[in-house]
Amino acid sequence: MKHAIPDRPVRRKLLTGLSYAAMMSLAIGLNLLPVFLTSIKYSFGGSEGLSGEELGRLGAFAFAGLVVGILLTGPLADRFGAKPFAILGNVLTVVGLAGMSLSQNYIMLLAMIGLIGLGAGVLDMILSPVVAALNPESRSSAMNWLHSFYAVGAVVTILIATLALAAGLGWRTVCWLVMPLPLFLIVSFIPLRFPPMITDQGRIQFRVLVKKSGFLIALAAIFLGGATELGLAQWLPAYAELSLGFSKEVAGTGLLLFSIAMALGRMVIGAAGNRICPYQAMGWGCVLSVILFLGGAFLPSGGWALACCVLAGFTGSCLWPTMLAVTADRYPAGGATMFGALAALGNAGGIFMPWVVGAVADWHSLSLGIATSAIAPLLMLFLVLELARRR
After folding, report:
1. How far apart are CA 65 and CA 191, in angstroms?
2. Around Cβ 154, how many Cβ atoms within 10 Å?
3. pLDDT of residue 96
4. Could you count the other beta carbons within 10 Å of the beta carbon of residue 80?
5. pLDDT tens digit sequence for 89-105
6. Is 3 a domain residue?
7. CB neighbour class for 176 (10 Å; exposed up to 12, middle 13-18, buried from 19)
8. Helix (H, G, I), strand (E, B) or coil at 202
9. What CATH number corresponds to the domain at position 275?
10. Which residues form the domain of 64?
11. Cβ count within 10 A of residue 166
Protein backbone atom coordinates (compact mmCIF):
# COMPACT_ATOMS: atom_id res chain seq x y z
CA MET A 1 0.00 0.00 0.00
CA LYS A 2 1.41 3.40 -0.99
CA HIS A 3 1.05 6.42 1.25
CA ALA A 4 0.27 9.76 -0.41
CA ILE A 5 1.78 13.06 0.68
CA PRO A 6 -0.95 15.12 2.34
CA ASP A 7 -1.88 18.39 0.67
CA ARG A 8 -1.84 20.47 3.86
CA PRO A 9 1.57 22.17 4.37
CA VAL A 10 1.21 21.93 8.15
CA ARG A 11 1.09 18.15 7.86
CA ARG A 12 4.27 18.17 5.81
CA LYS A 13 5.99 20.40 8.34
CA LEU A 14 4.79 18.20 11.19
CA LEU A 15 6.17 15.06 9.56
CA THR A 16 9.49 16.78 8.88
CA GLY A 17 9.69 17.89 12.51
CA LEU A 18 8.85 14.42 13.80
CA SER A 19 11.48 12.97 11.46
CA TYR A 20 14.02 15.28 13.08
CA ALA A 21 12.89 14.03 16.50
CA ALA A 22 13.17 10.43 15.28
CA MET A 23 16.75 11.11 14.27
CA MET A 24 17.33 12.08 17.90
CA SER A 25 15.76 8.77 18.93
CA LEU A 26 18.18 6.98 16.62
CA ALA A 27 21.06 8.70 18.44
CA ILE A 28 20.04 7.50 21.90
CA GLY A 29 21.21 3.91 21.95
CA LEU A 30 24.27 4.52 19.81
CA ASN A 31 25.59 7.27 22.09
CA LEU A 32 24.89 5.77 25.50
CA LEU A 33 27.51 3.10 24.91
CA PRO A 34 30.57 5.37 24.42
CA VAL A 35 29.89 7.36 27.61
CA PHE A 36 29.58 4.23 29.73
CA LEU A 37 32.23 2.17 27.96
CA THR A 38 34.63 2.17 30.90
CA SER A 39 31.79 1.49 33.40
CA ILE A 40 30.59 -1.46 31.31
CA LYS A 41 34.20 -2.65 31.09
CA TYR A 42 34.16 -3.45 34.82
CA SER A 43 30.47 -4.40 35.08
CA PHE A 44 31.01 -7.52 32.98
CA GLY A 45 34.73 -8.13 32.82
CA GLY A 46 35.50 -8.95 36.43
CA SER A 47 38.48 -7.41 38.21
CA GLU A 48 40.53 -7.08 35.02
CA GLY A 49 37.62 -5.79 32.97
CA LEU A 50 36.70 -6.48 29.35
CA SER A 51 39.50 -6.32 26.79
CA GLY A 52 39.77 -3.58 24.19
CA GLU A 53 38.58 -6.01 21.53
CA GLU A 54 35.52 -6.97 23.62
CA LEU A 55 34.65 -3.31 24.15
CA GLY A 56 35.12 -2.65 20.45
CA ARG A 57 32.86 -5.63 19.72
CA LEU A 58 30.01 -3.93 21.59
CA GLY A 59 30.17 -0.95 19.27
CA ALA A 60 30.57 -3.27 16.30
CA PHE A 61 27.40 -5.19 17.29
CA ALA A 62 25.45 -1.95 17.56
CA PHE A 63 26.41 -0.95 14.04
CA ALA A 64 26.07 -4.49 12.71
CA GLY A 65 22.45 -4.42 13.89
CA LEU A 66 22.10 -1.03 12.31
CA VAL A 67 23.35 -2.25 8.93
CA VAL A 68 21.05 -5.30 9.05
CA GLY A 69 18.11 -3.00 9.80
CA ILE A 70 18.99 -0.78 6.87
CA LEU A 71 19.41 -3.64 4.40
CA LEU A 72 16.12 -5.29 5.39
CA THR A 73 14.12 -2.07 5.44
CA GLY A 74 15.19 -0.51 2.13
CA PRO A 75 13.49 -2.87 -0.35
CA LEU A 76 10.48 -3.37 1.95
CA ALA A 77 9.90 0.38 2.28
CA ASP A 78 9.75 0.73 -1.52
CA ARG A 79 6.97 -1.86 -1.46
CA PHE A 80 5.00 -1.12 1.72
CA GLY A 81 5.74 2.55 2.42
CA ALA A 82 7.62 4.31 5.18
CA LYS A 83 5.08 4.46 8.02
CA PRO A 84 5.30 0.92 9.47
CA PHE A 85 9.09 1.15 9.60
CA ALA A 86 9.12 4.58 11.28
CA ILE A 87 7.01 3.02 14.03
CA LEU A 88 8.93 -0.29 14.17
CA GLY A 89 12.30 1.44 14.56
CA ASN A 90 11.14 3.18 17.72
CA VAL A 91 9.55 0.01 19.11
CA LEU A 92 12.84 -1.88 18.73
CA THR A 93 14.69 1.00 20.43
CA VAL A 94 12.38 0.85 23.46
CA VAL A 95 12.67 -2.96 23.76
CA GLY A 96 16.45 -2.84 23.34
CA LEU A 97 16.92 -0.13 25.99
CA ALA A 98 14.84 -2.11 28.49
CA GLY A 99 16.77 -5.28 27.73
CA MET A 100 20.13 -3.49 27.95
CA SER A 101 19.24 -2.21 31.42
CA LEU A 102 18.24 -5.70 32.57
CA SER A 103 21.27 -7.51 31.07
CA GLN A 104 23.00 -9.84 33.53
CA ASN A 105 25.89 -11.02 31.35
CA TYR A 106 28.02 -9.92 28.41
CA ILE A 107 26.18 -12.07 25.85
CA MET A 108 22.77 -10.61 26.74
CA LEU A 109 24.22 -7.10 26.69
CA LEU A 110 25.70 -7.79 23.26
CA ALA A 111 22.31 -9.00 21.98
CA MET A 112 20.39 -6.00 23.37
CA ILE A 113 22.89 -3.53 21.93
CA GLY A 114 22.47 -5.32 18.61
CA LEU A 115 18.67 -4.93 18.92
CA ILE A 116 19.02 -1.21 19.61
CA GLY A 117 21.25 -1.02 16.55
CA LEU A 118 18.58 -2.84 14.52
CA GLY A 119 15.97 -0.25 15.53
CA ALA A 120 18.39 2.54 14.74
CA GLY A 121 19.02 1.00 11.32
CA VAL A 122 15.32 0.93 10.50
CA LEU A 123 15.06 4.62 11.42
CA ASP A 124 18.30 5.58 9.70
CA MET A 125 17.12 3.99 6.47
CA ILE A 126 13.61 5.42 6.45
CA LEU A 127 14.13 9.00 7.65
CA SER A 128 16.45 10.21 4.88
CA PRO A 129 14.18 9.28 1.93
CA VAL A 130 11.15 10.64 3.81
CA VAL A 131 12.78 14.03 4.36
CA ALA A 132 14.21 14.02 0.82
CA ALA A 133 10.71 13.39 -0.56
CA LEU A 134 9.29 16.21 1.57
CA ASN A 135 12.04 18.67 0.50
CA PRO A 136 12.89 17.93 -3.17
CA GLU A 137 14.08 21.48 -3.89
CA SER A 138 16.79 21.55 -1.23
CA ARG A 139 18.00 18.03 -0.52
CA SER A 140 21.53 18.95 0.59
CA SER A 141 20.22 21.49 3.09
CA ALA A 142 17.46 19.13 4.29
CA MET A 143 19.85 16.19 4.71
CA ASN A 144 22.27 18.25 6.77
CA TRP A 145 19.45 19.59 8.95
CA LEU A 146 18.08 16.07 9.43
CA HIS A 147 21.44 14.62 10.37
CA SER A 148 22.22 17.60 12.61
CA PHE A 149 19.45 16.26 14.84
CA TYR A 150 21.36 13.01 15.19
CA ALA A 151 24.09 15.12 16.75
CA VAL A 152 21.51 17.04 18.82
CA GLY A 153 20.17 13.70 20.06
CA ALA A 154 23.71 12.63 20.86
CA VAL A 155 24.26 15.86 22.83
CA VAL A 156 21.06 15.35 24.85
CA THR A 157 21.86 11.68 25.48
CA ILE A 158 25.45 12.36 26.49
CA LEU A 159 24.37 15.26 28.72
CA ILE A 160 21.83 13.06 30.52
CA ALA A 161 24.40 10.27 30.89
CA THR A 162 27.14 12.63 32.12
CA LEU A 163 24.84 14.25 34.68
CA ALA A 164 23.77 10.78 35.79
CA LEU A 165 27.42 9.88 36.38
CA ALA A 166 27.90 12.99 38.47
CA ALA A 167 24.76 12.13 40.47
CA GLY A 168 25.96 8.58 41.10
CA LEU A 169 23.37 6.92 38.86
CA GLY A 170 24.44 3.92 36.80
CA TRP A 171 24.18 3.27 33.09
CA ARG A 172 21.25 0.89 33.67
CA THR A 173 19.12 3.72 35.11
CA VAL A 174 19.94 6.02 32.21
CA CYS A 175 18.48 3.45 29.77
CA TRP A 176 15.07 4.12 31.35
CA LEU A 177 15.55 7.89 31.50
CA VAL A 178 15.94 8.23 27.70
CA MET A 179 13.01 5.96 26.82
CA PRO A 180 10.19 8.60 26.70
CA LEU A 181 11.24 10.04 23.31
CA PRO A 182 10.86 6.82 21.26
CA LEU A 183 7.61 6.10 23.10
CA PHE A 184 6.29 9.55 22.15
CA LEU A 185 7.26 9.02 18.51
CA ILE A 186 5.45 5.67 18.32
CA VAL A 187 2.22 7.41 19.33
CA SER A 188 2.83 10.46 17.11
CA PHE A 189 3.53 8.53 13.88
CA ILE A 190 0.42 6.34 14.07
CA PRO A 191 -2.15 8.89 12.69
CA LEU A 192 0.13 10.40 10.01
CA ARG A 193 0.44 9.65 6.30
CA PHE A 194 3.91 9.39 4.77
CA PRO A 195 5.25 10.35 1.31
CA PRO A 196 5.70 7.56 -1.29
CA MET A 197 9.16 6.08 -1.66
CA ILE A 198 8.84 5.86 -5.46
CA THR A 199 8.51 8.91 -7.74
CA ASP A 200 5.89 9.34 -10.46
CA GLN A 201 8.62 8.53 -13.00
CA GLY A 202 9.18 5.15 -11.43
CA ARG A 203 12.30 3.79 -9.74
CA ILE A 204 15.70 2.83 -11.08
CA GLN A 205 16.21 -0.88 -10.49
CA PHE A 206 19.02 -1.43 -8.01
CA ARG A 207 20.77 -3.90 -10.33
CA VAL A 208 20.96 -1.07 -12.87
CA LEU A 209 22.14 1.43 -10.27
CA VAL A 210 25.06 -0.70 -9.08
CA LYS A 211 26.42 -0.84 -12.64
CA LYS A 212 26.99 2.92 -12.59
CA SER A 213 30.55 3.76 -11.58
CA GLY A 214 29.48 7.08 -10.01
CA PHE A 215 27.18 5.26 -7.61
CA LEU A 216 29.88 2.75 -6.66
CA ILE A 217 32.24 5.62 -5.88
CA ALA A 218 29.53 7.20 -3.74
CA LEU A 219 29.13 3.91 -1.83
CA ALA A 220 32.86 3.75 -1.12
CA ALA A 221 32.95 7.42 -0.15
CA ILE A 222 30.10 7.17 2.35
CA PHE A 223 31.75 4.07 3.89
CA LEU A 224 34.79 6.23 4.57
CA GLY A 225 32.59 9.08 5.80
CA GLY A 226 31.00 6.77 8.35
CA ALA A 227 34.44 5.52 9.41
CA THR A 228 35.62 9.12 9.82
CA GLU A 229 32.71 10.10 12.03
CA LEU A 230 32.20 7.00 14.13
CA GLY A 231 35.73 5.70 14.60
CA LEU A 232 36.55 8.69 16.77
CA ALA A 233 33.10 9.20 18.30
CA GLN A 234 32.89 5.64 19.68
CA TRP A 235 36.30 5.84 21.34
CA LEU A 236 36.57 9.51 22.37
CA PRO A 237 35.49 9.19 26.04
CA ALA A 238 37.66 6.12 26.61
CA TYR A 239 40.60 7.78 24.84
CA ALA A 240 40.25 10.97 26.88
CA GLU A 241 40.13 8.98 30.11
CA LEU A 242 42.62 6.16 29.51
CA SER A 243 45.22 7.86 27.28
CA LEU A 244 44.92 11.59 27.95
CA GLY A 245 44.37 11.19 31.69
CA PHE A 246 41.09 13.05 32.15
CA SER A 247 38.33 12.11 34.58
CA LYS A 248 35.19 10.23 33.49
CA GLU A 249 33.20 13.47 33.72
CA VAL A 250 35.64 15.40 31.52
CA ALA A 251 35.83 12.48 29.08
CA GLY A 252 32.04 12.43 28.77
CA THR A 253 32.05 16.20 28.31
CA GLY A 254 34.55 15.76 25.47
CA LEU A 255 32.09 13.58 23.58
CA LEU A 256 29.33 16.07 24.39
CA LEU A 257 31.36 18.89 22.85
CA PHE A 258 32.22 16.67 19.87
CA SER A 259 28.51 16.13 19.23
CA ILE A 260 27.75 19.85 19.63
CA ALA A 261 30.47 20.61 17.10
CA MET A 262 28.97 18.05 14.72
CA ALA A 263 25.48 19.51 15.09
CA LEU A 264 26.79 23.03 14.45
CA GLY A 265 28.73 21.90 11.37
CA ARG A 266 25.65 20.32 9.82
CA MET A 267 23.49 23.30 10.71
CA VAL A 268 25.98 25.62 9.00
CA ILE A 269 25.81 23.57 5.79
CA GLY A 270 22.03 23.31 6.11
CA ALA A 271 21.62 27.06 6.57
CA ALA A 272 23.97 27.79 3.64
CA GLY A 273 21.73 25.78 1.34
CA ASN A 274 22.64 26.10 -2.32
CA ARG A 275 25.13 28.92 -1.66
CA ILE A 276 27.96 26.46 -0.97
CA CYS A 277 29.33 23.77 -3.28
CA PRO A 278 28.75 20.41 -1.59
CA TYR A 279 31.90 18.89 -3.09
CA GLN A 280 34.07 21.73 -1.79
CA ALA A 281 32.49 21.37 1.66
CA MET A 282 33.27 17.65 1.72
CA GLY A 283 36.80 18.16 0.37
CA TRP A 284 37.75 20.68 3.03
CA GLY A 285 36.06 18.52 5.66
CA CYS A 286 38.29 15.58 4.71
CA VAL A 287 41.52 17.61 4.74
CA LEU A 288 40.83 19.26 8.09
CA SER A 289 39.70 15.99 9.65
CA VAL A 290 43.01 14.31 8.78
CA ILE A 291 44.95 17.16 10.41
CA LEU A 292 42.81 17.14 13.55
CA PHE A 293 42.87 13.35 13.95
CA LEU A 294 46.67 13.37 13.86
CA GLY A 295 46.77 16.31 16.28
CA GLY A 296 44.42 14.50 18.65
CA ALA A 297 46.61 11.41 18.55
CA PHE A 298 50.09 12.90 18.82
CA LEU A 299 50.03 16.37 20.43
CA PRO A 300 51.92 16.20 23.75
CA SER A 301 49.39 18.38 25.56
CA GLY A 302 46.32 16.45 26.63
CA GLY A 303 44.18 19.59 26.50
CA TRP A 304 45.16 20.42 22.92
CA ALA A 305 44.79 16.79 21.86
CA LEU A 306 41.25 16.68 23.27
CA ALA A 307 40.47 20.02 21.57
CA CYS A 308 41.53 18.54 18.22
CA CYS A 309 39.25 15.54 18.77
CA VAL A 310 36.33 17.85 19.57
CA LEU A 311 36.91 20.07 16.51
CA ALA A 312 37.03 16.97 14.31
CA GLY A 313 33.32 16.69 15.00
CA PHE A 314 32.79 19.98 13.15
CA THR A 315 35.05 19.25 10.18
CA GLY A 316 33.72 15.74 9.57
CA SER A 317 30.07 16.61 10.16
CA CYS A 318 29.04 17.26 6.56
CA LEU A 319 30.60 14.18 4.96
CA TRP A 320 27.79 11.67 5.48
CA PRO A 321 24.63 13.78 4.89
CA THR A 322 26.13 15.72 1.97
CA MET A 323 27.20 12.51 0.22
CA LEU A 324 23.61 11.25 0.66
CA ALA A 325 22.29 14.48 -0.85
CA VAL A 326 24.56 14.66 -3.91
CA THR A 327 23.85 11.01 -4.70
CA ALA A 328 20.07 11.57 -4.39
CA ASP A 329 20.38 14.60 -6.68
CA ARG A 330 22.24 12.54 -9.24
CA TYR A 331 19.88 9.54 -9.01
CA PRO A 332 16.49 11.00 -7.89
CA ALA A 333 14.61 7.81 -8.87
CA GLY A 334 16.83 5.57 -6.73
CA GLY A 335 14.07 4.99 -4.17
CA ALA A 336 14.43 3.78 -0.60
CA THR A 337 16.65 0.88 -1.70
CA MET A 338 19.30 3.36 -2.89
CA PHE A 339 19.19 5.21 0.44
CA GLY A 340 19.39 1.86 2.20
CA ALA A 341 22.54 0.88 0.32
CA LEU A 342 24.18 4.24 1.07
CA ALA A 343 23.22 4.13 4.74
CA ALA A 344 24.38 0.52 5.03
CA LEU A 345 27.81 1.33 3.64
CA GLY A 346 28.11 4.42 5.82
CA ASN A 347 27.32 2.46 8.93
CA ALA A 348 29.56 -0.39 7.81
CA GLY A 349 32.32 2.17 8.18
CA GLY A 350 31.01 2.65 11.71
CA ILE A 351 31.42 -1.07 12.35
CA PHE A 352 34.85 -1.32 10.80
CA MET A 353 36.70 1.66 12.24
CA PRO A 354 35.83 1.33 15.98
CA TRP A 355 36.92 -2.31 15.78
CA VAL A 356 40.18 -1.32 14.05
CA VAL A 357 40.86 1.35 16.70
CA GLY A 358 40.32 -1.22 19.48
CA ALA A 359 42.51 -3.80 17.75
CA VAL A 360 45.34 -1.30 17.23
CA ALA A 361 44.97 -0.23 20.88
CA ASP A 362 45.46 -3.84 22.01
CA TRP A 363 48.46 -4.22 19.68
CA HIS A 364 50.20 -0.91 20.42
CA SER A 365 48.27 2.03 21.95
CA LEU A 366 44.95 3.81 21.79
CA SER A 367 46.73 6.92 20.50
CA LEU A 368 47.93 5.00 17.47
CA GLY A 369 44.42 3.62 17.04
CA ILE A 370 43.02 7.16 16.85
CA ALA A 371 45.75 8.12 14.37
CA THR A 372 44.90 5.09 12.22
CA SER A 373 41.36 6.38 11.77
CA ALA A 374 42.78 9.39 9.87
CA ILE A 375 43.22 7.07 6.88
CA ALA A 376 39.44 7.21 6.28
CA PRO A 377 39.07 10.95 5.51
CA LEU A 378 42.31 10.89 3.55
CA LEU A 379 41.00 8.20 1.19
CA MET A 380 37.58 9.84 1.02
CA LEU A 381 39.17 13.07 -0.23
CA PHE A 382 40.29 11.38 -3.46
CA LEU A 383 36.82 9.95 -4.05
CA VAL A 384 35.16 13.32 -3.48
CA LEU A 385 37.54 14.93 -5.98
CA GLU A 386 36.66 12.27 -8.53
CA LEU A 387 32.91 12.79 -8.03
CA ALA A 388 33.40 16.54 -8.35
CA ARG A 389 35.30 16.03 -11.62
CA ARG A 390 32.46 13.87 -12.98
CA ARG A 391 29.87 16.44 -11.99
Report:
1. 28
2. 28
3. 92
4. 15
5. 999 999 999 998 888 88
6. no
7. exposed
8. strand
9. 1.20.1250.20
10. 9-191+204-390
11. 11
